[in-house]
Specification:
The complex is a heterotrimer of chains A (about 800), B (about 325) and C (about 170).
Chain A (H helix, E strand, L loop, with lengths): L1 H4 L18 H5 L15 E7 L5 E7 L1 H5 L3 E6 L23 E2 L5 E7 L2 H10 L1 E6 L6 H6 L14 E9 L2 H7 L2 E9 L11 E6 L5 E5 L4 H12 L6 E5 L14 H13 L3 E4 L2 H7 L6 E9 L5 E11 L7 H7 L13 E8 L15 H18 L3 H7 L6 E2 L5 E2 L4 H11 L2 H4 L7 E11 L14 E7 L5 E5 L8 H13 L6 E5 L16 H28 L6 E4 L2 E4 L2 E7 H12 L3 E6 L19 E12 L6 E11 L6 H20 L5 E2 L5 E2 L17 E7 L21 H13 L2 E2 L1 E2 L3 H12 L5 E2 L13 E3 L20
Parallel strand pairs in A: 1-12, 7-34, 8-32, 10-11, 14-15, 20-21, 27-30, 31-33
Antiparallel strand pairs in A: 1-5, 2-4, 2-6, 3-5, 7-15, 8-13, 9-10, 9-12, 13-14, 16-17, 18-26, 19-20, 19-25, 22-23, 23-24, 26-27, 28-29
Chain B lengths: L7 E3 L4 H10 L4 E4 L5 H6 L7 E4 L11 E5 L2 E7 L4 H5 L2 H6 L1 H8 L4 H6 L2 H5 L12 H6 L28 H8 L2 E6 L2 E6 L19 E8 L4 E8 L10 E10 L2 E10 L6 E2 L1 H7 L6 H12 L12 H23 L1
Parallel strand pairs in B: 1-3, 2-3
Antiparallel strand pairs in B: 4-5, 5-8, 6-7, 6-8, 9-10, 10-11, 11-12
Helix pairs in contact in B: 10-11, 11-12
Chain C lengths: L3 E7 L2 E7 L5 H8 L18 E4 L2 E4 L12 E3 L11 H9 L8 H14 L5 H7 L11 H14 L8 H5 L3
The chains are: A alpha+beta (about 800), B alpha+beta (about 325), C alpha+beta (about 170).
């Protein structure tokens, strides 16, 4: 979409300047309506009965007593909704309500609609369910080794959901060429999104035989597909409206049982039905960060240049598929886009366990291996006596290049990010030289600006924007995108106002309504700014061109001389000659009829053609570098992080103040994961979630949050709208390894496990004092029955992006 | 939305009336002051009083901290309904009992301290992460003996409940030698703070069911110093996973008397006389501090029912006792 | 149980409602008085989202009984704009201190009480005052900056967001 880019930065009036988000005043005055704020006449309330067992077969369910309870209007069980669903076409393994088997404590079993929420709650307790308990699969190790009982009857092997084995060149050869090879094992505990808003949904079966569902969802389009499938309702008769999300972070990206349950209850009762989950239930929705055990074997030359890397990951998926297949691929996708890597091998496995299903959380699947990779690089720098910042700078991926695993990198501002944080933190004079207990650590990362492929295979656009121009001079933007607080509604307004020369207040934005708005795939994979932004540019430029033609004809000025600015259309060579924007619309409408337009966007096709190549490509990669300063209390092991410097390659900031907020928020969430957040289960007590509450699941307060110094690196990307890349997820990624590396600088021990709790730090310090290895972390990576590898030659070995057939090498 | 169950709500205007209401209740009954402990517990259905008696309208409970002389000893008295904010922010408390101000300040969050009272914090229900869970969660493990069940999941072979006393102010009150004034069926009685708590997660308060804690009396001891250190994950919200309250009376730079009390490592604030003995008669040199820290380490027995691991929490006893004593020694320099 | 008639003074308005006797102030505000600006994230006093002011003091509305709040001045986010947004609201909007906006009402009211007490709070004062409000979006930084900006304006200064707050460090 280079045309609006070519307008040049000097011509931009809105893009790049700080703007108040279009929904901000509504939010700060309490007027924004979130899903649970909605209320309809005769509305019923729903509650869900959930499994008290981690793994069991349902042998009997009797709702008769519950149906007699006061206020109860309808009860549904698994038999009422037998069709399975799931976010990925390859993992249609969920039911709205378990028909025969429950797979984690909290798995939905029945749903009640009653006059009040209390009555619905009472009724759930009257539902009689008999269970036949099954053995539980508790851990990655269980999932890899136990062949019975099976959590699902599909998957790559027994309780292993997915196995991946990809080779890009001969890593063994790389290790032979290397001056230094090291192998490290890391563990990243699972953690959850913890949006402050608890999920809520409202369904209304209309008298016209159409159903409307309002929900706190990040992906109304995928919810639309799943709900219509399960309800056996034509998508044409189902309208999904995503309400503003009170925080998402990936946690509202799956279609959820409660969303479809209220639909069915509304269809049965003919009344609106609302559900509002408790915080504990939000923990049972989860779909957050997978626990990942990982092993990195990396060979480098004496300058730290990577000759070969072999990564193995094992993911604890929990009870269902969710995005898990994609998550597994993502654990191996982005290692190659930061530093040049000559050969790369990735093996990934996801197992089912009887815990709450994991899925995508901010940085989806790439966060855990980025931690391992950046900590290992730090160890390598120490081994080679190289400055870790300098070593990274020397080995950066070049712009306009293709990686070993066939990802195309258009622009990379990582070098500037590193330079900025190095300068800002006074790294060169302070790293390695601070007193015991104080330390600095650096790490870098990259993230997608939107996934290259949709969740389900199709050739349609990823994002659509429709514009409607009013004779009065107003413009309405229709787009399926969903504002989860990141400001995507505002992005649409900035772009349309910019291209059409209007003020933000002239733009009305209608989003996330499957009846009214063209499809946008949803707020995930940091895709919205780039995808909808480009679609909005296309739609706006169509209008601009229509106006230029019609107004040019009217004013007898060549169309290419007509400019739109200051709510006017005028001759750029004689600005006095022109009309107001409203008049311009009237002139255009008189000339061509109703003024509207459509824009759509599909990211460029990636060069990778092998199975699995669909995960990792993006139109543009954002880059981040962070330096963390830590204070470690060597007597307690407590780590505090007084300051973080972060450089983020944003391409171009559409609204710098919103970008700053995304960066700071990413740092915050990264810090929480680094220090304290974890999904903890009691393995010996029914595999219960240990702490399903806001008090006990620790998220940082003002006291734990660091000061943040942010540098925005602006190097416009040709694929980004006005050059913009993402900011919503990337800045989270370098925080965990930067802090871990700083802990090493402070007290000389390695905590190769997230979260870095005081207990772990202290144990590592104690071991070091006893003359043992000053380290806390996993010792080994388990045996996994890997399939035969798919061999793909890197571009520089003459590959074409496809698997070599026959294989280029014998499997060792 | 997690909601309260139905209950009868009574608002007596005098202590006598409140006690009478409690005595005449036929079903489970609870007093409530700030509500920040009782109401979450009721929402999770692990406290299920059918009658809740509010102490909010009883004016004498809200008497602000004042310095008074009782039986020729000087005290700071505090009405039980004074909010934790008003305790920690009170100038008299800050000057005369800074350790108490510090402990009150460390409780939960600013808004919860505006609601929660000193009396409520002293009577805080014992906590356990097998107990402070919803009805559904507890049902999944077939409940525990503190509510609806028979077993203590923290120590399944134990005949008793191991829920943890998680009050920040209780250990300080014991260390300071405070007295609690109770009003009950038999009229007013005065109980030393040290005798107010039992090492039992269920019967954790040594008082009659209808007794109301009405006033706290903190003695003012010339030449004494005290402090409170709290261990927790976050700087707000969190209950202590270890509290160390130390009180020392000095005589010419020599420790004349001392009390060392640990919070959050047992079902009651654990007084450690052997730790105090280790420093009495010393000038609080490094060796005696180490001896006291070691003495406190042995009886500190955290269980696996709070945040953070028990082995680490036990180790931290030593560190925190040592730090508290160093802090008090520094105050004398 | 029979419903209970209560009169609450919310944002200076006398409001009558027929409530469940055990209803919390949060429920009464949201469900009986249609003041849905007050949010909820846990209903157990563990997040601060439902903070409102009672007689000028921040309290957790999910742990206060509605019936016990009669004869008190209750202030919710809806009462802050009169009708022009309060300086805090303007600053929060300007600086992006509200991202998803869900925890925002609780922060605004807590901050308002702070500024009532201290017109020139330090960064540490702000951190201490807001330590009972969880935000998952902002990392709190834009919130601190917004409180400082509003405080300056309320003191009569012609304050603007700093260049660093908007563009980062150059």
């Amino acid at each position: 979409m280079a045309s609006s880019e070519s307008r040049g930065a000097d011509a931009l009036r809105i893009v790049g300047t700080p703007q108040t988000k279009i929904d901000a005043v509504s939010k700060v005055t309490g007027r924004t309506l979130f899903a649970d704020d909605l209320k309809l006449p005769r509305m019923l309330f729903a509650k869900i009965l959930r499994s008290p067992h981690p793994h069991a077969r349902l042998t009997r369910i009797d709702v008769s007593k519950a149906l007699e309870a006061p206020g109860v209007k309808a009860i549904i069980t698994g038999a009422d909704l037998p069709i399975p669903f799931g976010i990925l076409p390859v993992s249609q393994d969920e039911h709205v309500l378990a028909p025969d088997q429950v797979r984690f404590v909290g798995d939905p079993v029945a749903a009640v609609a009653a006059l009040t929420e209390d009555q619905a709650l009472v009724a759930t307790k009257l539902i009689e369910v008999d269970y036949e308990l099954l053995d539980t699969i508790k851990s990655i190790n269980d999932g890899l080794t136990k062949t019975t009982p099976l959590i699902h009857d599909y998957g790559d092997k027994d309780n292993i959901h997915k196995l991946i084995n990809l080779e890009f060149g001969d890593v063994e050869e790389g290790f032979e060429e290397a001056d230094h090879v090291r192998e490290d094992v890391f563990f990243f505990e699972g953690n959850t999104h913890l949006p402050i808003e608890q999920h809520a949904s409202l369904a209304d079966w209309g008298a016209d035989g159409k159903l409307t569902l309002w929900s706190s969802t990040q992906t109304p389009h995928y919810l639309h597909r799943a709900a219509s499938k399960v309800l056996e309702l034509s998508p044409a008769h189902l309208r999904v409206i995503a309400c503003p999300n009170g925080g998402g972070f990936g946690g509202k990206s799956d279609p959820f049982s409660h969303e479809i349950a209220v639909c069915k209850l509304s269809m049965l009762t003919g009344r609106p039905v609302k559900i509002s989950l408790t915080r504990e239930e939000v923990f049972y929705c989860h779909r957050g960060r997978h626990p990942v055990l990982m092993s990195f074997k990396t060979g480098v030359d004496k300058n730290g240049r990577i000759k070969g890397m072999h990564l193995r990951t094992a993911l604890d998926g929990g009870g269902y598929g969710s995005y898990g297949v994609a998550s597994t691929y993502y654990t191996g996708a982005l290692q190659t886009v930061t530093y040049e890597m000559e050969r790369y091998k990735f093996q990934g496995a996801r197992v089912f366990t009887n815990k709450v299903p994991c899925g995508p959380k901010r940085g989806h699947g790439t966060v855990q291996p980025r931690f391992g990779q950046e900590v290992q690089l730090d160890k390598i720098a120490v081994d080679l006596k190289l400055d870790p910042a300098e070593m990274r700078l020397q080995n950066l991926v070049k712009p306009d290049s293709t990686t070993a695993n066939w990802l195309y990198v258009s622009t990379i501002g990582l070098g500037q990010c590193i330079e900025k944080v190095v300068d800002g933190s006074d790294w060169k004079t302070r790293y390695g030289k601070l007193p015991y207990g104080k330390g600095l650590g650096i790490a870098c990362s990259s993230y997608l600006s939107g996934a290259g492929l949709p969740i389900y295979w199709n050739k349609m656009p990823h994002s659509g924007v429709q514009l409607k121009c009013d004779r009065g001079g107003g413009v309405t933007v229709f787009c399926g995108s969903t504002d989860i607080g990141q400001g995507s509604d505002s992005v649409l307004a900035y772009i349309v106002a910019e291209v059409l020369g209007l003020e933000l207040v002239d733009i009305r934005v209608v989003t996330a309504d499957t009846d009214l708005t063209p499809v946008d795939l949803g707020s995930y994979s940091s895709r919205v700014t780039l995808h909808t932004g480009n679609a909005a540019i296309e739609a706006s430029e169509k209008i601009r061109d229509m106006i230029a033609q019609a107004v040019g004809d009217k004013l007898e000025v060549p169309a290419e001389r007509i400019r739109l600015a200051d709510r006017r259309a005028f001759d750029v060579e004689d600005p006095e000659v022109g009309v107001s924007f409203a008049e311009a619309i009237q002139i255009t409408e008189s000339s061509v009829g109703t003024v509207g337009s459509l824009g759509s966007y599909t990211p460029p096709r990636s060069p990778g053609r092998y199975r699995g190549a669909g995960v990792g490509p993006s139109a543009a990669y954002s880059y981040s570098a962070a330096i963390a300063e830590v204070d470690v209390d060597p007597e307690t092991g407590f780590v505090s992080v007084p300051k973080i410097w972060i450089g983020h390659d944003i391409g171009r900031s559409l609204n710098p103040i919103a970008v700053m907020g995304q960066v700071e928020g990413g740092v915050y969430m990264g810090l929480g994961e680094t220090l304290m957040e974890e999904m903890a289960y009691r393995e010996n007590r029914n595999l219960m979630h240990r702490i399903p509450s806001m008090l006990d699941y620790k998220s940082p307060t003002t006291h734990e949050m660091s000061d943040v110094v942010t540098y925005l690196i602006e190097d416009p990307d040709p694929n980004g709208p006005f050059g913009a890349k993402e900011a919503g997820q990337g800045p989270l990624l370098p925080i965990m390894p930067a802090v871990a590396n700083a802990v090493y600088d402070a007290v000389g021990v390695r905590v190769d496990e997230i979260p870095i709790t005081p207990e772990k730090v202290l144990e590592a310090i104690r071991k070091k004092e006893q003359g043992k290895e000053g380290r806390y972390g996993p010792k080994e990576f388990p045996d996994v029955p890997w399939p035969e590898p798919a061999q793909v030659l890197p571009p520089w070995e003459g590959g074409d992006g496809r698997e070599t057939d026959p294989p280029a090498r014998k499997v060792k | 939305m997690l909601r309260l169950p139905e209950f009868e709500f009574l608002e007596p205007s005098s202590l006598e009336e409140a006690v009478k209401m409690h005595e005449s209740a036929t079903e489970e009954v609870a007093y409530v002051a700030g509500g920040t402990d009782l109401f979450p517990n009721m929402k999770r259905r692990h406290q299920e009083p059918q009658t809740v008696i509010s102490l909010g309208a009883i004016e004498e409970l809200s008497t602000a901290p004042e310095e008074v002389e009782i039986d020729r000893r000087r005290f700071v008295t505090i009405g039980a309904n004074v909010s934790l904010t008003d305790v920690s922010g009170n100038q008299l408390v800050q000057t005369l009992c800074p350790a108490l101000a510090k402990a009150a300040e460390s409780v939960s969050t600013p808004a919860l301290k505006n609601m929660g009272t000193i009396g409520g914090n002293l009577c805080l229900d014992t906590r356990c992460n097998y107990y402070n869970q919803s009805f559904e969660w507890r049902r999944s493990i077939d409940f525990c003996m503190k509510k609806d069940g028979d077993i203590c999941w923290v120590a399944p072979n134990s005949p008793r409940c191991w829920a943890v006393n998680s009050s920040d102010t209780a250990p300080v009150m014991i260390a300071l030698g405070a007295d609690f004034v109770l009003m009950g069926r038999g009229g007013e009685q005065i109980v030393p703070a040290a005798e107010f708590y039992n090492d039992d997660g269920i019967a954790y308060l040594n008082k009659g069911p209808s007794d109301i804690l009405t006033q706290i009396r903190v003695p003012i001891t010339p030449g004494s110093g005290a402090t409170y250190l709290k261990l927790r994950r976050r700087g707000s919200f969190d209950f202590p996973v270890l509290g160390v309250a130390v009180w020392i009376r000095w005589n010419n730079k020599i420790v004349d008397d001392a009390r060392i009390v640990l919070g959050a490592v047992a079902s009651y604030p654990r007084i450690i006389p052997e730790a105090a003995t280790a420093i009495i008669g010393t000038d609080l040199d490094d060796d005696s501090i180490e001896a006291a820290a070691a003495a406190a380490f042995r009886p500190s027995k955290p269980m696996d029912n709070t945040d953070l691991g028990l082995a680490w929490r036990k180790q931290m006893t030593k560190v925190y006792v040592r730090r508290a004593l160093h802090e008090l020694r520094a105050q004398t320099d | 149980m029979a419903k209970l008639r209560v009169t609450l003074r919310v944002n200076g308005e006398e409001r009558e409602a027929l409530i469940e006797p055990q209803a919390t102030l949060l429920e009464v505000l949201r469900e009986d008085l249609e003041l849905t600006g007050t949010k909820h994230g846990c209903e157990l006093g563990e997040c601060g989202a439902c903070t409102v002011l009672i007689d000028g003091t921040p309290v957790i509305s999910c742990l206060a009984l509605g019936r016990a709040c009669q004869e008190k001045d209750i202030r919710t986010v809806e009462g802050m704009a009169d009708p022009e947004p309060h300086a805090l609201q303007t600053a929060f909007a300007e600086l992006g201190a509200a991202q998803c906006g869900y925890c925002t009402p609780g922060f605004l009211l807590t901050a308002e009480a702070l500024l009532e007490e201290k017109s020139e709070p330090t960064r540490d004062d702000i951190k201490d005052a807001l330590a009972g409000n969880l935000c998952r979006c902002t990392g709190y930084i834009k919130i601190y900056e917004a409180v400082e900006l509003a405080a300056a304006r309320m003191r009569g200064e012609n304050a603007q967001p700093t260049q660093e707050a908007i563009y980062g460090q150059q």
